[in-house]
TrEMBL record:
Lineage of the organism: Eukaryota, Viridiplantae, Chlorophyta, core chlorophytes, Chlorophyceae
Pfam families on file: DUF3707 (PF12499)
Protein name: Extracellular matrix glycoprotein pherophorin-S
Domain Pherophorin: 284-432
Organism this protein belongs to: Volvox carteri f. nagariensis
Amino acid sequence: MARLFCGSRNWGWTRRAPRMRRCASSLRTTGLARAAPPWSSSALRRQATRRASVQQLFSTLRASAARFLKPQLFLFRYRTPHHHLSRHHLRHRHRHHRRHHRLRLRHRHLHHRRHHRLRLRHRLHRRLHRRLHLHHRHRRRHRRHRRHRRPLPHRAKLQPPAIDVRPYRYDPYACFQIQDAISTQINVALIDNNIHMLSYFVLNYNYCTELETRVCGTFAYAAEAQNFKATAEALMPYFLGSASVGSVCKPELEGYRVEITTEGSTCLDLSGSTSCNAAATPVPSSTCNMAKGTLPFLVSTRYMVNSWSANSTEYCFQVNVLDASQVVPGGCSGDLSQLGEVQLYARRNLSASVHAVRIYPSVGSSSIVTPSWTAIGGAYLFNVPLHWSISQAQDASVCIELDNTKTMLDLCLGFPGQCYVSTVNTNRDCCPSYRTALGLLALTALTFNTGVAPRLTCK
């Protein structure tokens, strides 16, 4: 039986052509070849011609590309397949090339990154040297304009009244607020005006006391500090507001004076002060002595919300007692150890909104009292009878229950947003008056629970 398969499977390669021709001739002899096989002479000639034309085409393209491109950037390259290598060897070579390519890219990236860091470092060093050179040249040029560089402190100070029966002092949080507000505002102004500073104004807890707080900064040149004086004077109202921790007219600062000064400075001399111009006597036609401290009884700076319901809210004023050494002689007659009543400067037409008045002494049980109204020169005083001793008045409370449609700001007269409350002796010849306002915690609780927010605008 004749062999129908001749040679190997690689029919198209030239080195096997003689064997393929012999095999084709034997097939024609036996009559088994019906058509010209791929190893016939005509097929081999056509294949050789096609291969030669392809090789000639790639040779022409390489020659054309070599005229315009660099020798290592050939775009067309004809390679003969690696027929002498097995599939395993080809896969191993591909993996080796890929791993080598990754390592080469890794080394190139590390080299570029290291070189970039060195270049940035050299650039930074050049900038620093340039800046130091300019700084020293600037110092030499302006040496005659320099002054002795000492820190320039801005001082915020509280000046208490002569009779300080309700002392107010800076706590650490208030001191931090003042230092932060003043230093931030003045540093922004310095930067906007291109003022050279050796040290800007910063916070320092070591400069905090009960009546004074300071922030310090150092100017580089006296001439620039003098030019900055107009800007600093324009910021004086802001500094005074910051030193007041809110408002200079709050009850805690009644009778106080807030001052802003600069210490030990000839190049930037600033000073300013402010105080509240509220009337010390809300009822000018009153005949009793309203000077503070003439009686050992006083009212706290804040009144609170004691309780609330769907229809009414109870506001409470706290009564305290002074030491005997703090009482100021004021010509008061009678027994000074008895608190006869408490008066509130109020609107008479809102009497229907007052549901009840309750008193809570420190010693004894609470009770409901009936108030009275007194007309003095067109004004009305809301009188609450007490007859308390010193032990009963210490940390006691006088509470007024109002309808929820009104608040104490509607009932009270005098300074906007505050109430004037007076303590009266039994003979009614001394009635020291004190300003008081709603506490912040009470304001939040009142708004959240009743939905009625007190109006804090001026009347």
